[in-house]
Amino acid sequence: MEGVDTTLRKRISTGDQGAFGELFDAYARSVYNHAFRLTGNWAQAEDVVSLTFLEAWRLRERVDEDGGSLRPWLLGIATNVTRNTRRAARRHAAALARLPPEETEPDFAEEIAGRLDDSAQLALVRTALSELRRADREVLALCVWAGLDYAAAAQALGVPVGTVRSRLSRARTRLAKHMEPPSRRGQMRGDRTTAVRPIKEGNR
């Protein structure tokens, strides 16, 4: 894909709409998966995908013609879009708080609970992820779930490689700690992070 991406870079930077369509076909699923891991909501993830590619088109002239995969670039944009949509959601929630309460919709865990056999493990996953700092959760999503290496994740987030390493180490440590059920803490246990270790996406 690197040779293909190099060609795409040149075509995209000149505003080739056909090339941008190819970019979407190649990476929309990867961006969607990353967005869902950050938001935990299917609908929000779809919005992030749309906004990510709109922003990518807006920034097309900044694409360097020389380089490898465009996937880290897109995931970096998706991460920033997610941050912005969360801020907008918080402002929206503050406005709605002044209105009469409505029946709340189930969160993402309830939507996918039927796909998991161990509901207790699901509860641990939700709690563990919520305890992570946003920056650590973003690195975890990029390196563990999206399968980016340290350098690609650093490129996506615009931070030094050392920062990625330290955030990932901290995220793994905290995740392992919170994945331990209260009744089992202090006891030996096997793999405590199985439920949050889906198949990695290939680096294109």
Could you characterize the architecture of this molecule?
The chain is mainly α. It is 66% helix and 0% strand. The protein has nine helices and no strands. α4 packs across α8. The N and C termini lie close together (6 Å). The model is unreliable at 185-200 (pLDDT under 50). Residues 178-204 are annotated as: Disordered. Keywords: Sigma factor, Transcription, Transcription regulation. It comes from Streptomyces kunmingensis. Residues 23-91 form the RNA polymerase sigma-70 region domain. Residues 124-175 form the RNA polymerase sigma factor 70 region 4 type domain.
Provide a quick synopsis of the model.
It holds the Pfam family Sigma70_r2. The protein has helices at 2-13, 17-39, 42-58, 71-96, 108-112, 119-131, 134-145, 150-157, 161-178. The chain is mainly alpha-helical and 204 residues long.
Percent of residues in β-strands: under 5%
Radius of gyration: 19 Å
How many angstroms separate the termini?
Answer: 6 Å
Low-confidence parts lasting 5 or more residues at pLDDT below 50? 185-200
What's the helical proportion of residues? 55-70%
Mean pLDDT: 76
- Report the total helices: 9
Structural class: mainly alpha
Shape: globular
Largest sheet: none
Structural key phrases:
single chain, 66% helix, RNA_pol_sigma70_r4_t2, mainly alpha, globular, 204 residues, RNA_pol_sigma70_r2, RNA polymerase sigma factor, sigma factor, transcription regulation
Topology overview:
Elements: H1 2-13, H2 17-39, H3 42-58, H4 71-96, H5 108-112, H6 119-131, H7 134-145, H8 150-157, H9 161-178
Helix pairs in contact: 2-3, 2-4, 3-4, 4-8, 6-9, 7-9, 8-9
InterPro entries: RNA_pol_sigma-70-like, RNA_pol_sigma-70_dom, RNA_pol_sigma70_r2, RNA_pol_sigma70_r4_t2, RNA_pol_sigma_r2, RNA_pol_sigma_r3/r4-like, WH-like_DNA-bd_sf
Pfam family, one: Sigma70_r2
Family: Belongs to the sigma-70 factor family. ECF subfamily.
